[in-house]
Design a protein that fits this description.
Helix content of chain A: 25-40%
Strand order of the largest sheet of chain A: 3-4-5-8-7-6
Largest sheet of chain A: 6 strands, antiparallel
Structural class of chain A: alpha+beta
Radius of gyration of chain A: 21 Å
Order of helices and strands of chain A: HHHEEHEHEEHHEHEEE
Shape of chain A: globular
Distance between the termini of chain A: 32 Å
Largest interface: A-B, 44 and 44 residues
Oligomer: homodimer
DNA sequence: GAGTGGTCTAGACCACAAC
DNA sequence: TTGTGGTCTAGACCACTCC
C-alpha cells in the first residue's frame, strides 16, 4: 500500500473516532514527516486528501485544523453504491428486480451510451424498498459488449460490485445530473409515491478507467426521502 | 502566478476551445515538462487539476486522454455564485431584494451558524427572476460580526463578490445538501410556482479560509428549472 | 525494451502568521 | 525571528502498456 494512503487513512480514522477533535491543529508537516519517516511531499499528499474530503482545513502560516464532520455526518458525495448507503441506514432495505433483459439501443440510449442504434444493451429495472415502501426506482443501462453475463442475484445485491470484483472492470468516474420531473406511468406503477407529483431524478453517466463510457443510470427518488450531500472547495 | 496554474489554465482553455479534442492524448508529462521548462512534478500538479475538474483522464502506461465536456456542458458543481451562472444563461435575469435586515439568531439559526441565540445576523431574502418568472428564492443568513455593512445594491449584484472583494474575506469551502420540500407560505408568496407542490432546496453552509462558518443559505428552486451537475471521481 | 504515468525523496526558496 | 504551509526542482525507482 502507498505510504501517503496509509497516512491518510490513519489520520482520517483518528478524526472519525474523535481522537483528533474539531478545532485542534494537526502536527506540522515537518513533524509528521519526521514521525512517519517519510518526506514532506508524501505527508502533503496525505493532508491534501484529507482536505479534499473535508476532514481538515489547511491554513497558511498556521497549520492544519480539524473540521467538524458531525454537522453533515459524512460527505456522501461522489461515487457511492446503493449497497454502501444501505449499510448506514436503519430499517429494512430490499431490492426488487422488475426487469433484466438485453435490448437493442434506441436513439436516446445510443446517445446516452455513446454507441450505435441497435447495439445490445443490458436493461435493468429495480426498486429499492425501504421499510416496505418502494422509495427509489433504478433504471440501469449497461453496454452488453463489456458485460456478457448479468446474473439476477447480483442485481439484487450490487451491480457495481459484480462489475468491479467479478468482471475486473475498474469504474473511474461519473458525471451526475440532478433534476426534478413529473412522475411517469412507470414511476406511478413501481414506486410508492404517496401522492407526490414530483420525482427527483439522478442521471448518471459512468466511465471506466480507460475513459470509456459504459453505463447510464437513472435513479428516480420519491422527493421526501431524497437527500444529496456535497462538499465543495472553492476553485481559485 | 503559479507555474502549475498557468499550465492548467492554458491546457483547459485549449480543451474548451477544441484545440485539444476528446479522445486525443496530451503530450507526455516528460514532454510537457521539457516544453514548459518546468519539472515533471509541476506538470503533474497541472494535470491533476485537469483530471479533478473532468477535463482529462490519466491512464497509467498510456497517457492523458482528453474527455468529452460537451455532453454535460460545464461541470458546474462546487462553489459557483448565481452571478457567474447567470452570465451563461440566455434570457433576462434580475434579482429582487425582499428583505435586508439584522435579526437576532433564533435557535435554528444559532445552530446552523454555530453561534449563540440572540447574536446579530444579517437576513437577506431575494428572488431570482428569469424571463419574468420568480424561479429561485434565496434566503441568506450571514454572521453580522464579520460583515458590518451590507448595501442593498450589492445584494442585487452578488453578495459573494462584495464579501470577497470589498471585505477581503476569503471563502474557502461549503457543505451542500439538496432536498425536496413542500412549498412554504413564503415560497407561494414570492415564487412563481406554476402549480408545483414541491420545491428543491439547496442548503449551504459556507466557510471562510480560517475554517470559520460564516453563512447559511437556502436556495429554494422551482422544480422544473432546477438542475445540479456534479463530477465525481471514484475514491480508491 | 521503450515509453507512460505513479510514487517518493531531500533539498530549496517563498509568503504568511505569530511572537 | 521562528514556524507554518505553498511551490518547485532534479533526480530515482516502480508498475503498466505497447510493440
Amino acid at each position: 500500500m502507498n505510504k501517503y494512503l496509509q497516512i491518510y487513512q490513519e489520520l482520517s480514522r483518528q478524526i472519525e473516532e474523535g481522537k483528533l477533535r474539531p478545532g485542534e491543529t494537526l502536527p506540522s508537516e515537518h513533524a509528521l514527516s519526521k514521525s512517519y519517516g517519510v518526506s514532506r511531499e508524501t505527508v502533503r499528499k496525505a493532508l491534501n486528501l484529507l482536505s479534499e474530503h473535508g476532514y481538515i482545513q489547511k491554513i497558511k502560516g498556521k497549520g492544519s485544523v480539524v473540521l467538524d464532520l458531525s454537522r453533515f455526518e459524512f460527505p456522501v458525495s461522489g461515487l457511492v453504491s446503493f449497497k454502501e448507503l444501505a449499510k448506514k441506514m436503519k430499517g429494512t432495505v430490499e431490492t426488487v428486480v422488475h426487469e433484466l433483459t438485453k435490448v437493442p439501443a434506441d436513439r436516446f440510449l445510443a446517445q446516452q451510451l455513446n454507441t450505435e442504434e441497435g447495439d445490445r444493451i443490458w436493461k435493468v429495472v429495480r426498486t429499492r424498498v425501504i421499510d416496505g415502501e418502494a422509495i427509489i426506482l433504478d433504471k440501469d443501462f449497461l453496454r452488453a459488449n463489456l458485460v456478457p453475463e448479468l446474473p439476477v442475484d447480483r442485481c439484487r445485491d450490487s451491480i457495481y460490485e459484480y462489475v468491479e470484483d467479478d468482471l475486473g472492470l475498474a469504474i473511474s468516474f461519473a458525471k451526475k445530473e440532478v433534476v426534478a420531473e413529473k412522475p411517469s406511468a412507470e414511476d406511478r406503477r413501481l414506486l410508492s409515491l404517496a401522492g407526490f407529483d414530483t420525482v427527483i431524478v439522478v442521471k448518471n453517466h459512468v466511465y471506466l478507467e480507460d475513459a470509456c463510457l459504459f453505463q447510464y443510470t437513472e435513479s428516480r427518488h420519491r422527493p421526501d426521502k431524497f437527500r444529496f450531500v456535497d462538499f465543495a472547495r472553492r476553485n481559485r
